[in-house]
Amino acid sequence: MRMKRQIIDKIQVNIPFTMLYDSYLDLFIEQKLNPEIGIDAVALKRFSLSDFSNIAELFHKHSRTITLHAPFDDMSPGSQDPAVRGVTRKRFEQMLQLVPLFRPKTVVCHASYDRKRYSYYRDLWIENSLEMFSWLGACVSDEGGQLMLENVYEHSPDDIRILFERLEAYNVGFCLDTGHQAAFSRTSLAEWMDALEPYLEQLHLHDNFCEDDDHIGLGQGKIDFVTFFEHIKTIKKEPPIITLEPHKEEYFQPSVEYLEKVWPW
């Protein structure tokens, strides 16, 4: 039980703000969970700054660590269409209003490269993405946090490495999502870790059967987390920020119990 509590104190647990507000706030407070709060267009439209502030203050009162996940549905920071980039920036601007309230350690964004959509204008995609994320990274850094870019549909770390190389001045880190890598990448997990090791600052952990983005509990799918943790300990002597991303409540406890068995630090 003591080890379980120590692990829970060191990790974040994903929760969309709307679900937190409507159903899970008491559970998070009672179990002393550190939230990674997902902000989306629905929450930004439904809730006032006062609503967000009240939740933030409650977590601060209970000395919980907070991370945020920025909006990502239908967002395209690297789009060739200025109107699409304008909507994307508007959502990020709305999210940035919440950063001083929650004071998150990190704000996670999807890097959002998809070869099916962007390969034919990759150079422009890179240019537009760098413009968006340099602005956003500076804004988050000014508030004491760190911007993280997360892999989703990328086939290889080479798809997005250039972003991290050119955003070093803005302290932008890499959030490695194990479930996305297993479901969508064509490059091994070890290669992802090795290629982006200088920028690896956060992990999103969830399991699947290497076909779809199932977000099931750790150890319930096919991802080899034992080898993963053995490898990552060789490049990270201290644990990076770790977020559990179970998409059903019943996946949470098995994930923590699995972490107890494989925790390398």
- The total domain count is 1
Topology as a string of helices (H) and strands (E): HEHEHHEHHEHHEHEHHEHEH
User: Mind summarizing the main beta sheet?
Assistant: 8 strands, parallel, barrel
Estimated helix fraction: 40-55%
Catalogue the unreliable spans: none
Give the neighbour order of strands across the main sheet.
Answer: 1-2-3-4-5-6-7-8
Number of DSSP helical runs: 13
CATH homology superfamily = Divalent-metal-dependent TIM barrel enzymes
Overall 3D form: globular
Q: What is the average of the pLDDT values?
A: 96
The first-to-last residue Cα distance is 17 Å
Alpha-beta classification: alpha/beta
Find the CATH topology: TIM Barrel
Number of strands: 8
User: What is the CATH architecture annotation?
Assistant: Alpha-Beta Barrel
Computed Rg: 18 Å
Indicate the CATH class: Alpha Beta
Strand-residue fraction? 5-15%
Labels describing this entry:
alpha/beta, TIM Barrel, 8-stranded parallel barrel, 13 helices
Structure, briefly:
The protein is built from 13 helices and 8 strands. By secondary structure, it is an alpha/beta fold.
Helix and strand topology:
Layout: H1 2-10, E1 11-16, H2 17-30, E2 34-38, H3 41-46, H4 49-61, E3 67-69, H5 82-96, H6 99-102, E4 106-110, H7 115-118, H8 122-142, E5 146-150, H9 161-166, E6 173-177, H10 178-184, H11 189-195, E7 200-205, H12 225-235, E8 241-244, H13 252-262
Parallel strand pairs: 1-2, 1-8, 2-3, 3-4, 4-5, 5-6, 6-7, 7-8
